[in-house]
């Protein structure tokens, strides 16, 4: 199959649409996930309210702001796959099917990204809306500061998240134990994305480091853009920078993987 | 039942030992994941001296007691709430044709001792908390009782979560809201939550008896809701009541089991 | 040995009640060798699962070795052996020998009897070469022989096999068949198997139960089955005829299968 220019243009949107549709068939699982994300959101909200009652204005948030932060970051779990997964790649590497993917006349990375964007679009609605709405009903959340910039920030966050998960998945080509890698990714992502606590209250140099790492682009930054606690232009530039770095790294690894699989035969 | 448990757990441990690197990484991973919760508590108390009326030492005690119970329940029985995977793979059929309780077979399924790391960590936090609190022996005897009751309560929750999956095979994450949610809930003093939630956790789903009510007794502090101090001593009774409910739900689940296509 | 009276099982699929098996009545005497035939989705597996205690019937009465399978599941497990052609009852990562030892302990078979049984099975099924191999590395034929051994260690009175020859090569198939025939004739073990392979039926069974649309469509000897369509050369054609004739009436869908792999992610 030779892909002409026109085919390549329509291929990736079509893959995104398939990704969307495929995940839409698991609506029960998505609803269950949304339910769990909401329950945890409620628990986190109470703990953070207690902390903010002791220290009003901590990290630049007021109580309403930190409640909003909690439910927004819980809503990010699905679309950003903060607990890992979402890609078929590790499975395909384990079974050796990846060799077929690598010889396709289309970029493996773009292929996966397209499918992942479709997945994220579905989960943004199915797993993002319920925690946000329930948070609004139970506690009241503030209105978005810059809605358009927030949506752009979520989209960029998905790309950063994909860039990271793609690297982790592809690393399975070299590190035989993908479960260990998955655990490592889970730990750094949940902690440094701002899912457990706002990174703004991480103390000292540890906080500065956490805020500069790519994982903050997956939950902390979109939430800050929503709340207006971060300037949209700077925040989006930060996310775009990490998206570019991770995608470039992923592209280099794809090349190396292709040489390894095609030349050495796996 | 205990013999069967030991037999199967040992078989799975030997099977897991075949993958040494994976085993080492998972052990380290379990340790680090448990460490994250401690890091969160550390960051919270780096920002405040007290949370909902409780200081760091008291929170360490409450966290350690609940987390130790949860980690041990998870190590011993946590696989029970993975039953939807077994249903999908058809392996529950195999468990049902053996002359052993499917619950014991589920609990030991893919048993690996690596989750002990989290229990060790929680035990350490509990130990440090207790050492700093200076609790008289007349109340300290309640600590082991509350940990054992906590194990039973969490084991019952895992079982209820498993039983729920006979109904909701496609929506297994709902069960995590109760099991892992229950564990997270008890990491902080329940005075953090709305009084209505705490009442629900006392009288409906008795999670308050894992560490909150008995913890208040051990700490010698009055209940913010005004319940008498001996309420904490009811933990074993609450644990047994929940275990009975879980056992009934599990039996009902097995009877409703539909098996897969072929 | 097996008694089913008006046995039925319904499933609710999207609020519609589906009868996977209905009003099934038959008896299997001790020492019989019976094949259960039927097209895909006819209710064979559902029947087998009700006989072994995996599924609870929604109507009717069933007794296997004198026990109600769903109520006396563990007691029954000690009296019957079950083999699934499509999945193993052994431990994937353990060597076959350790798996069998575990089965011995689970079924509380004493050591002496275990040794005798195992020696006998090693002889008959030629297990010697791969007792030390982890189950995941066994070929399908080897695995099936291991599974049959595991199902027979406690010397059950009834052996139930769900598609035991599926996917086996010609040699393995012949070995398994020869073994089952011997088991039935020498030990007098009652055998009930489901199959799509009519070679199994012709070479092994005196009696055939044909299940279609969840009902018993034929119960009799292989010769009797052949007589239903005189002029047909092979038993295969006879059965194909029967299946085709029944296709005019709508078929019960198979028991519901939950979604395979969902996207991951928890909490």
From TrEMBL, chain A:
It comes from Microbispora siamensis. The keyword rRNA-binding does not apply. Signal peptide: none annotated. Keywords: Membrane, Transmembrane, Transmembrane helix. The chain crosses the membrane at residues 24-47, 120-142, 148-168, 180-206, 236-257. It comes from the Bacteria. This is ABC transporter permease. Pfam families: ABC2_membrane_6. InterPro entries: ABC-2_transporter-like. PANTHER family: INTEGRAL MEMBRANE PROTEIN, SLR1174 PROTEIN-RELATED.
UniProtKB/TrEMBL annotation, chain B:
Keywords: Membrane, Transmembrane, Transmembrane helix. The keyword Membrane applies. InterPro entries: ABC-2_transporter-like (IPR010390). The chain crosses the membrane at residues 21-45, 51-77, 140-160, 230-250. Pfam families: ABC2_membrane_6. The keyword Transmembrane applies. PANTHER family: INTEGRAL MEMBRANE TRANSPORT PROTEIN, SLR0610 PROTEIN-RELATED. This is Transporter. It comes from Microbispora siamensis.
Automatic annotation (TrEMBL), chain C:
It is found in: Cell membrane. Residues 2-238 form the ABC transporter domain. InterPro entries: AAA+_ATPase, ABC_transporter-like_ATP-bd, ABC_transporter_ATP-binding, P-loop_NTPase. It comes from the Bacteria. SMART domains: AAA (SM00382). Pfam families: ABC_tran. Keywords: Antibiotic resistance, ATP-binding, Nucleotide-binding, Transport. It is a peripheral membrane protein. The keyword ATP-binding applies. The keyword DNA-binding does not apply. Residues 245-267 are annotated as: Disordered. Its main location: membrane. This is ABC transporter domain-containing protein. It comes from Microbispora siamensis.
């Amino acid at each position: 199959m030779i892909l002409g220019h026109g085919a390549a243009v329509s291929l990736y949107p079509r893959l995104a649409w398939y990704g969307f549709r495929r995940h839409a068939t698991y609506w029960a699982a998505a609803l269950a996930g949304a339910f769990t994300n909401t329950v945890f959101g409620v628990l986190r909200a109470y703990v953070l309210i207690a902390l903010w009652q002791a220290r009003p204005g901590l990290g630049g948030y007021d109580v309403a702001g930190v409640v909003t932060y909690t439910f927004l970051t819980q809503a990010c779990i699905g679309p950003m796959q903060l607990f890992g997964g979402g890609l078929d790649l590790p499975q395909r590497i384990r079974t050796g099917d990846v060799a077929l993917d690598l010889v396709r006349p289309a970029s493996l990375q773009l292929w996966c990204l397209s499918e992942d964007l479709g997945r994220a679009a579905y989960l943004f609605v199915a797993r993002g809306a319920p925690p946000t709405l329930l948070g609004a009903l139970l506690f009241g959340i503030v209105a978005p500061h810059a809605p358009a910039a927030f949506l752009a920030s979520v989209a960029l966050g998905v790309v950063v998240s994909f860039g990271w998960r793609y690297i982790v998945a592809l690393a399975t080509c070299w590190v035989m134990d993908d479960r260990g890698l998955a655990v490592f990714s889970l730990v750094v992502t949940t902690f440094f994305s701002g899912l457990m606590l706002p990174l703004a209250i991480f103390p000292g140099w540890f906080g500065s480091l956490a805020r500069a790492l790519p994982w903050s682009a997956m939950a902390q930054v979109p939430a800050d853009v929503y709340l207006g606690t971060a300037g949209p232009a700077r925040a989006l530039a930060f996310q775009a920078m990490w998206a570019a770095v991770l995608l470039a790294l992923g592209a280099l690894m794809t090349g190396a993987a292709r040489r390894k699989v095609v030349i050495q035969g796996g | 039942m205990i013999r069967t448990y030991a037999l199967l757990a040992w078989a799975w441990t030997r099977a897991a030992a075949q993958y040494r690197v994976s085993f080492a990484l998972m052990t380290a991973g379990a340790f680090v994941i448990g460490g994250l919760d401690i890091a969160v508590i550390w960051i919270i108390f780096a920002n405040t001296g007290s949370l909902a009326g409780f200081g760091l030492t008291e929170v360490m005690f409450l966290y350690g007691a609940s987390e130790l119970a949860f980690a041990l329940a998870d190590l011993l029985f946590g696989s029970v709430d993975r039953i939807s995977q077994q249903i999908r793979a058809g392996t529950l059929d195999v468990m049902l044709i053996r002359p052993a309780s499917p619950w014991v077979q589920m609990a030991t399924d893919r048993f690996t001792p690596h989750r002990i790391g989290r229990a060790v960590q929680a035990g350490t936090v509990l130990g440090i908390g207790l050492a700093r609190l200076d609790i008289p022996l007349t109340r300290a005897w309640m600590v082991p009782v509350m940990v054992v009751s906590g194990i039973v309560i969490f084991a019952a929750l895992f079982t209820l979560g498993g039983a729920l999956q006979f109904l909701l095979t496609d929506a297994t994450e709902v069960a995590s809201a109760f099991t892992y949610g229950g564990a997270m809930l008890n990491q902080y003093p329940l005075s953090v939550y709305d009084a209505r939630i705490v009442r629900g956790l006392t009288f409906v789903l008795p999670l308050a008896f894992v560490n909150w009510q008995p913890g208040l007794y051990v700490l010698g502090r009055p209940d913010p809701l005004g319940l008498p101090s001996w309420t904490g001593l009811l933990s074993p009774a609450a644990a047994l009541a929940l275990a009975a409910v879980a056992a009934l739900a599990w039996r009902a689940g097995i009877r409703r089991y539909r098996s897969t296509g072929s | 040995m097996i008694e089913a009276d008006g046995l039925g099982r319904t499933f609710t699929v999207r609020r519609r009640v589906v009868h996977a098996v209905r009003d099934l009545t038959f008896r299997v005497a001790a020492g019989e060798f019976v094949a259960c035939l039927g097209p895909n989705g006819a209710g064979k597996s559902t029947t087998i699962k009700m006989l072994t205690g995996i599924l609870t019937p929604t109507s009717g009465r069933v007794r296997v070795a004198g026990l109600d399978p769903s109520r006396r599941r563990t007691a029954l497990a000690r009296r019957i052996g079950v083999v699934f052609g499509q999945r193993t009852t052994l431990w994937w990562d353990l060597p076959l020998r350790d798996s069998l030892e575990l089965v011995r302990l689970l079924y509380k078979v004493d050591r002496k009897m275990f040794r005798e049984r195992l020696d006998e099975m090693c002889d008959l099924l030629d297990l010697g070469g791969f007792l030390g191999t982890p189950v995941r590395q066994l070929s399908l034929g080897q695995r099936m022989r291991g599974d049959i051994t595991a199902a027979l260690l406690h010397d059950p009175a009834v052996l139930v096999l769900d598609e035991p020859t599926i996917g086996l090569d010609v040699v393995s198939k012949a070995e398994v068949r020869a073994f089952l025939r011997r088991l039935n004739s020498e030990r007098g073990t009652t055998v009930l198997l489901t199959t799509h392979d009519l070679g199994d039926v012709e070479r092994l069974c005196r009696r055939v139960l044909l299940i279609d649309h969840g009902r018993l469509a034929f119960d009799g000897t292989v010769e009797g089955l052949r007589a239903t369509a005189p002029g047909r050369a092979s038993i295969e054609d006879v059965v194909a005829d029967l299946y085709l004739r029944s296709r005019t009436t709508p078929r019960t869908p198979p028991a519901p299968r939950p979604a395979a792999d969902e996207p991951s992610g928890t909490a």
